[in-house]
Structure of U-box domain-containing protein:
Amino acid sequence: MISAYRTRRAARNADKIKKSSRSVDLEVEVAVPEHFRCPISLELMKDPVTLSTGITYDRESIEKWIYEDGKHMCPVTGMALTSLETVANHMIRKMIQNWCVQNKSYGIDRIPTPRAPASSYQVSEILSKIVAMRGKGDAEGVMELVVKIKDLAKESERNKRCIVSNGSSRVLSETFEVFSCRENLPVLEEILSGLTLMLPLDQETISYIGSNRSLRSIVSILKHGGLSGRRNAVLALKDVFSSDQNTLHKFVEIEGSIEVLAKLIKEPICPTTTNASLLAIYHLITPTSSLDQKKTLISRFLEMGLTEKLIEMLVDCTRSVCEKALGVLEGLCSIDEGLEKAYGNALTVPVLVKKLLRVSDTATEFSVSILWNLSKYEKRMAYEEDMAMEALQIGGFQKLLLLLQVGSSLKTKEKAGDLLKGWNSLRGRVECIETMDFKYLKRPF
């Protein structure tokens, strides 16, 4: 019985030795030939392409080198590239595919034949057809062609660059303006969907999207469009507002425009839409226009309960949303009516103190600015110093002291210093508690 057990164990050990030797052989036999490796990634090339210098690379690696890293020299030879165009090396690709097939037994999969990237001729042809369909008023034909453009753009970054460089955004924005006259929402939503793949938009495109007719259509989509349509509309709007101040006045004059933006905050669709909506509102309430116009616009947002919604949102939100929400709240607090709303909300001071030194430098600067404005408002209105007392109780004094030590902008430091001077006289009247925010904070002093 014991001998039988020993025999079985010896057989198992011999099996393990065989497997081990096979794995060693596998490593030797499936070593990738050097000329099949990309000189940049050192991995097996899936889509080999050749530069003007004659050196072959994997398309993904060399395009990242050229377009993302901005290096216009051959990585191997160091020679300046006379052309940034790459040529597919079909011979090397076929050799790699044959090698993969020969080594299939070792678990190596054959690399698929890559799809040919979009060419300037292909894109120009599609755009010409869009212009022709637009002239005939063929909305369905335009939609089909826009879908083709979108599919190409989604395939690769190279395709997207090719599409943008051939003036696609200009053609699509022109088409958007033309169909705006006919109030055809489905085709307008499709066009906006294509344009959002090409952000940021160039000035020529913005001039078409920022026209009165186009802006009215965008407002219509924000009111009646589907979820993706509203998302794309506000993304385009945010991009237009950040580049062209003139569109702000046109937008405000459109009936229901302010209400639809506020609704996107009060009834959020997705984080992307919320971020874009907050940015759009921020551009609207912090323009270089007249003070009276600004007050009127802010008052409209205040009437819709935007202050309360922003403060509620700040209790628990992402860093990106937090920064933008604080920026909008600071804009709303630039007039007394906005300060009154914020001052009367029980969550305002706790939320603002909590955001100090916790989210980002931008969030801290906005929070300090709002607290400073509220403090000035409290003194100006001769209110009891309830806000200051509350800030002291929840650790606001310590945070501002620390802010002066860890560094911030000069303007923020000045405001923090003013707040500390005002609150210092009250410290004896209230018991300050050490906030949990300091528990794991490494102080530089």
In short: Strands lie at 48-50, 56-58, 87-88. The first strand starts at residue 48 and ends at 50. Residues 1-31 form one domain. Confidence is low (pLDDT under 50) at residues 16-28, 438-445.
